[in-house]
Amino acid sequence: MTFQRPGADFAPATPCIDEVGGLACALADASPTEIVDAALHAVGPGRLCLVSSFGTESAVLLAYAAEVDRSIPVVFLDTGWLFEETLAYRDTLTAQLGLTDVRSLQPDAARVAALDGERDLWFSDPDTCCRIRKVEPLARALGGFDGWLNGRKRYQGGLRASIPVVERDGVRLKFNPLANLDRAAVEAAHKAFALPDHPLVAKGFSSVGCMPCTSRASEGEDSRAGRWRGKAKTECGIHTLLNTVGN
Asked: Which residue intervals define the domain Phosphoadenosine phosphosulphate reductase in the entry (predicted)?
């Protein structure tokens, strides 16, 4: 697929003074496929994975990665609270894109039983709920990799508004191949790849995570407004807490 860079300049001021900064600067205007390819070369075969939630905005990154190498391991965190539609979407995209190594990971059962035996931790302490169901399992999974790809975009705002294309994530490199794209470019790529929508998009969900902490976003709201609605929380922790676990 031909990549067209958005007209607006989203690139942050990334210092080019070290290896990571230099790589970030070199790839600042690169296409998603170029970034994925550079990531593979930077960390080496078998040392790079893609982390995907198979949510409403996940398909485009998976499609770009499949253009480069369909065997890149895809790590999927099955938290035990996911919508059935998300699990079905995982299977649909895996088949359509020909992904050959999708790894569905579950949280540690004993840890969940000890801290969330009543299955209400999402309400009383959502940060700990995310930590045991997402952050800790991902930290274990990343132990075998030197770099990972994720689908954050700057237009999503909040802590994501100034992410570089490449950054240091503890002992690993973290690549954000879609950071440069605006919403229109992501939607154009979704159409060009002929990707199916997540089944819950038709039901009014613009961003989908775990069932208890996901609601519909109203017209005019930010796309992630339906995540942890009413709580002072905007991230599950894999992009903010991972360095404190297992690295």
From this structure: 48-215
pLDDT in tens, 133-160: 999 999 999 998 999 999 988 877 677 7
Q: Give yes or no: 236 in active site.
A: yes
Whole-number pLDDT of residue 17: 65
Give me the catalytic one of 16, 25, 49, 236. Answer: 236
Cα–Cα distance, 211 to 84 (Å, whole number): 10
CA separation for the pair 74, 226 (Å, rounded): 26
25 among annotated binding-site residues = no
Q: How many Å apart are CA 214 and CA 64, to the nearest integer?
A: 27
How many Cα atoms are found within 13 Å in the side-chain-facing hemisphere of 193?
23
Task: Name the DSSP letter for residue 82.
Answer: B
Query: What is the side-by-side order of every strand in the sheet holding 74-77?
Result: 102-105, 74-77, 48-51, 147-149, 172-175, 166-169
Does 16 count as an annotated binding residue?
Answer: no
Tens of pLDDT along 203-238?
A: 999 889 999 899 888 777 677 776 877 777 777 877
